[in-house]
Amino acid sequence: MLPTGTPPDRAWVDVAVPRPSVRLPGVSMAGFRHRAPALVDIAMVAYPSVTLLVDLSEGGVVYETHGRHERGSVVVGLLPGDLRAAGWGAGQCLQIRLEPVAAAALFRRVDRAQRDGGSP
Question: CA nearest 106: which of 29, 28, 26?
Fold first, then answer.
């Protein structure tokens, strides 16, 4: 289990959220950067979407849910329960949320392209 730390000092956290796009309905994004050289342990908020967390940091972010640990970039489904993200030192990640209909359309295209030997 990941250690439970103190909440991060918000002065060391940058968040960037672009305007919603009419060209990508059902998709939202946010970028996060933590600049403090210390342990970061954050309880993630449950959201009714498929979430892609793209790790852009050098040290790697560790995610834990239901006793399972993953490092680096992950896909988080509609699974209920706790999700924690932790890392040591400065780190960056991109969060992409796909509403269920958008996720199904995207993954259906990827699956079809893989079967046909092409790209989505």
Answer: 26
CA gap 120, 102 in Å, rounded: 14
Whether the model pTM is above 0.70: yes
Three-state SS at 14: strand
Contact 63, 90 (CB under 8 A): no
Write the CB contacts of 17 (distance below 8 Å, at least 6 apart in sequence). 28, 29, 30, 31
34-67 pLDDT, tens per residue? 777 777 777 777 778 888 889 888 777 777 777 7
CA distance 14 to 80: 27
Three-state DSSP class for 72?
coil
